[in-house]
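Action item from last week, closing it out:
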Amino acid sequence: MRVDLHTHSTASDGTDSPAELVRNAAAAGLDVVALTDHDTTRGHAEARAALPEGLTLVAGAELSCRIDGVSMHMLAYLFDPEEPALLAERELVRDDRVPRARGMVAKLNELGVPVTWEQVARIAGDGSVGRPHVATALVELGVVPTVSDAFTEQWLADGGRAHVAKHETDPFESIRLVKDAGGVTVFAHPAAAKRGRTVPDSAIAEMAAAGLDGIEVDHMDHDVDARTRLRGLAKELGLLVTGSSDYHGSRKTVSLGEYTTDPEVYGEITRRATGAFPVPGTGGV
């Protein structure tokens, strides 16, 4: 069984529609795929409707969080998407995305970069606008060669010249909200140092004590040493270990299923969840 628990569609900052994503996941030989768009579940219905036979969909989201001034992401799986408190928090984060992106455009203009809001809005389409869309605009303008090259202190990384902060949830509150909605929480790419400052192990231990279920270990932004360290930390704290592609379509070079989660860990995630259940494909439309 091949399980990829972290992917994005055009509902946030991926380039595949939700329907294209599940079809591409099946073509890549996956048995299970999680759709985890940023702070939204808007793509789930389309993904379910197009789900090919033999592929199971795990509904999820990637929640924007911040602790002690450090930005981090929390993967939430199989929660009740209509639970009022979690829904209200996701909407609060999403509503802050447009003014934040406009602020980044304004800062880039001050730096002499001729990016426009109209360009960023075109790239984002119907998705939740975010830094990857601004980064794509920089690629289109020839300012940087790749989206990843825009996530530096020179441009859009945390603390970078064109960075603008957004509303982000306290991770302990995220854990509580997801748990109350019947879901399971996994700290996404915790050692992705090239994205900016990372959360110390002591804070991860505090999250584990507060009910964090797991940490994402096998990820394109973690080198071998980071994965070894995180596996040891997970064992020490009793956390589940996941692996995922963090697929964004053509916006990143990683492929669906390039990193995967152990089927036994996936089974434990489904056992812990009470807010929703994985959806088996019946052929799609």
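Closing note: The mean pLDDT is 95.
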